[in-house]
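Researcher: For the record, we're logging two predictions in this thread. I'll number them. Prediction 1 follows.
Model: Prediction 1, sequence and structure:
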Amino acid sequence: MRQRIAGSGLRVAGWVLVPLGLLLAVGGIGYFFTHYQGATVMSEAMEPTYRQGDRLVIESIDAGEVRRGDVVLVDVPDRYQGGPVLQRVIGMGGDHVVCDGNRITVNGKPVDEPYLMRGEVNPATGPYDVRVPDGRLFLLGDHRGNSNDSRFFLDEQQGSVAASGVLGRVHKGSAAPVASGALGVLGVLLALVGIGLGIGGYAAGRSARRPLAAVPPWATA
């Protein structure tokens, strides 16, 4: 009787852990692949922040989630034929962006840019003064001397690009991707443990139901 109870308990635990583990695995892995993607830096335009060949994690976001200072992966096929590019958001819809050659101001406030290559704010072009249209973004590379960014397209909607073209932004930390990956691994482990418990419970049940061998008469003499 005790073996039957133990076997039944193991099977029940297995029935619980297997679907729970599969749910966690699918949820964790699914969340990672729907919210994040990998990207390789293909140019020197974002140096020294991100160097050519660096592998980055891109977090999928909506246009409404973009913030100034974000480094975004943006697709502008009419401007960049080689595919999506990585640039930094300087101005958003309605912003007044001004560069006098030595510094950039947005809506009259100086922008602190410690990430610039050699501290050069605008080595490749002259001063500019733009008003970013609604629903669009003014983007620059961190390596201003080697970045084909909004400054070179000022006659096209003030150099801006559609915010809807943003595919995602660089994820600076690792907590969320690691957590979702760990959740997926935990789910797989739970499912495997559940399968093991189920097999153990089945074996214990079979052992409990097996009839005892008859005792030979001479064994009791």
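Researcher: Logged. Prediction 2.
Model: Prediction 2, sequence and structure:
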Amino acid sequence: MQRTTMVRILLITYSLLLLYFMFAGFNRSVHLDYRYNMVPFHTISKYLANVSARNLLDTLINLVGNVAVFIPFGYLIPAAFPSRWSFSKFLLLFTALIILLETAQMLLRVGTGDVDDLFLNVIGGLLGYEIYRFFTNEGN
């Protein structure tokens, strides 16, 4: 099996798992009210201002988790479709993808549509993209 085909299968599998966890996993259910945050850095600052030993795990899951879970996409997307990816092209595509996911969460009333998640997810994707560039020597 060709390497690109294997990477594409891995990307599809990872995408399906992520969609499951975003929309159905963790006992998610439909909320009767809209749950969203459109104030930049509101959720991030709330977590950082109230961090203590008691809620450190929640803070790490929210802040680090929202970055870490999207790092594989930053690597897998350009690896699965290996045409030349510029930083700006990847940033635009990935940001649009995250906006779509966050909007779907808000409209379906599953989870929370949060602009801070957008920032954190895009940072994760960009970290993965830079890892891809480093290991494929595209950054040189």
